[in-house]
Amino acid sequence: MKNRTFFWFILPSLVAMILFIALPIGSVFIQSLYIEHGAVLKEVKSCGPFGCKDELQIDVVATSQLKQEKPLGKFNGFGTYTNRNHLAVNEVRDAWGSSPNWKIYFSKVYNLPFYRALAFTLTYTFLVTPLVLILGFCIALAVNSLPKKLKGPTIFVSLLPMIVTPLIGSLILFWMIDSKGILGASLQWLFEDPNLSLKASPTLTWIMLIIYGVWHSAPFAFIVFYAGLQTVPSETIEAAMIDGASRWERTRYVILPHLVPLIVFISLIQLMDNFRVFEPIVGFSAQASATSLSWIIYNDLAGGEGTFFGSAGATSVLTILGVAVLLIPVLIRTWNDFNRKAA
Amino acid sequence: MFLKKVMVAGAFIMLGNTAMAGCGISSGNVNVLSNDFPAIQAVTAGASTCAGDGVTVKTNLTKDHKDIMVAALTANPAEYTSVITSNSTLVTLMNDGLVRSLDDLVAKHGGGLNPSQMVTVDGKIMAVAFMANAQHLFSRSDILEKAGVSSIPATYEDVLAAAKAIKSAGLMDYPVALNTKAGWNLGEEFINMYMGTGGDFFKPGTAEVAVNNAHGVATLNMLKSLVAYSNPDYLTYDSNATQAEWEAGNLALATMWGSRGGAVMDGEGSSEAVESSTVLSSAPTWGNNARPASTLWWDGISISSNISDEDAEATFIAMMHGISPDVIKANNAAAVWLGKGYTPSKASAGVSATAAGGAAPYPMLPFMGTLHSALGSEISDFLQGSESAEQALSDIEAAYTAAATEKGFLQ
């Protein structure tokens, strides 16, 4: 393709990408460098149905003048990134100096909100992604060997967890694992422990969220692998059978190598998806035991009283950087494959 | 003859029309944003009767009102002409100058209001409160009796003793509940309990937090003692969950919102035994202090800044109809109303007792919300036993300081 033709060909998607991806990310980054103007406070008398009190209030006139002059706020550089609620540079350094051993150091760092969220996000990503690959592959193999009549209904049922909206799916499970719900009560009966509660302990909450993640995403891997299985050449399989390869050996040496591009594809999508885990934390009301980077952003924007645009922007930029770092190995692999094929 | 009939009929129709727009508004747009619970539904329904002939009344009742109100009122003209606010949300709106002073409107149209309904800041009326709310104690008299507890607990020490008696009598494993869902609810429980110590949240005259002290430690320890008698899932319990548990008969002692009293006593969703033995009483005191460990809240009417004076007047008149004595009489049990026409009911006994006991209002400070958020996210570690009270308090202090700096409250 000529360069000129290529340019016109790519132009619409280039424009769309700049408008809907590059510009918003740019504006989020700029916002993350600013904090709000120093509030001009004055003590005034405020009264209500329950009596009067002298309280500090914002001097709206003085503050709005500041805002009009500089609507973005006060420039803070990377101050928001390094403060205690994000990368907590000073706190991490102090913890290093004051900790006698690694265990105490890690518990001090884990006490900081950003690192706590990062710990769960990474654990979730690195457990759910491989489990989804393995489970999806197993389901695909199983469905592929079913009689033709059963395949349709089985595929439909297997896809259900992915069809359900994540928030709804997690809310349904939230009530099922309640100590009075069907799963929660069964577990109590099974382990003969009437006090067993999946929602109470942080460890069990993490396990529950990870199981939910696998349950929700496995159908995606399954359907991609199942499609891939239809393209495995039957001649190669037959040749392997003639050579006396067992079912396991056929899977290991014929089918798996054939599906490698799909494994890369699913890993790529799943790494991105799992790194921004969010809905199950809200659905399971799990924020006491598990938070994620996306959850922090949500909490800054809509969680409590007031909104923190600078904080939300900083965490967003850090999340984007995190996704980029995660994807580098997969992208390098794809790039090498591409070059090999080109050569 | 026929013509006469037509004319009379026509006159009636015209009369009817003016009666429909009969709140005395000639024209204007009314658009109300608010939280969603029965008392507010009654108010907005009352205001909606003013619709007709040149006057439109629209309402948006949503639990997410807090998240959209600032953006919606910053626009010019504002998306909503009125927001039903409370102690905490009014400050957020005032911080950006998004609500107007109501002095002239109250002077012109507020003749029927009680003076205590006026919420004034720096001498200007910024909101008209119409109902009060507070968290207070709900007790099951039958369970207490069976456990040998003779009176309704008046202090949290009594609550703990009663809970122990109920548990050791084998009546319930988890008799106590508070709204302890991590986040806003848990933050509110800390604020309530800390209020009972009489301590200040901030150093006087500044935005510097002051909860990292002996009062704070005692507050955390009291909360921990209470949740020891709560269902292990307590960190997921919000006000809907505690109400459901109460109505299911799984609780004997709970601190819940006064506005839930009407719902618990409404003859629906619960058994006769639970309903007839539910007693609403003042929020308990604790630690030999006199002030009930609760915060008083009001809900009230505010009017946007960025709208025309005509719309503002129309909105104010319509909202006055929404909180008129007729509406209050028709919905007496739905809330503790502050306006004329209210007769105290059984469902409001707890809020009234808490207010009479001298509980303090939720602080109307610009930076209170920031502290509330920090509290909500930092104390669950302590309750779960993974850190000390001192560590939790210094975490709260650090989280608040970073957030308040970003908000411009601290330099």
Keywords:
heterodimer; A: 343 residues; mainly alpha; MetI-like fold; B: alpha/beta; D-Maltodextrin-Binding Protein, domain 2; 2 domains; 11-stranded mixed sheet; 18 helices; 11 strands; 45% helix; globular
How does this model look, in words?
The complex is a heterodimer of chains A (343) and B (411). The model of chain A has no long low-confidence stretch (mean pLDDT 91). Chain A is globular. The relative contact order of chain A is 0.10. In chain A, the strands form two sheets. Chain A has a two-stranded antiparallel sheet. Chain A has 15 helices and four strands. Chain A has 343 residues and is mostly helical. Chain B has 18 helices and eleven strands. The termini of chain B are far apart. Mean pLDDT of chain B is 90; it is low at 10-21. Chain B folds into two domains: 17-133 and 296-353, Periplasmic binding protein-like II (D-Maltodextrin-Binding Protein, domain 2), CATH 3.40.190; 134-295 and 359-407, D-Maltodextrin-Binding Protein, domain 2 (3-Layer(aba) Sandwich). Chain B is α/β, with parallel strands linked by helices. The radius of gyration of chain B is 24 Å and the shape is globular. Chain B has helices at residues 2-20, 38-48, 65-74, 87-95, 103-109, 141-146, 156-168, 184-195, 214-227, 239-247, 259-264, 272-277, 309-322, 325-330, 349-356, 368-378, 380-383, 389-407, and strands at residues 28-34, 55-61, 82-86, 118-121, 124-140, 176-178, 253-257, 278-281, 295-303, 336-337, 360-361. In chain B, strands 1, 2, 3, 4, 5, 6, 7, 8, 9, 10 and 11 form an eleven-stranded mixed beta sheet that branches. In chain B, helix 2 (38-48) links the parallel strand 1 and strand 2 (55-61). The chains are: A mainly alpha (343), B alpha/beta (411). At the A-B interface, strand 2, strand 3, helix 2 and helix 14 of A face helix 3, helix 4, strand 4, strand 11 and helix 16 of B. Strand 2 of chain A pairs antiparallel with strand 4 (118-121) of chain B.
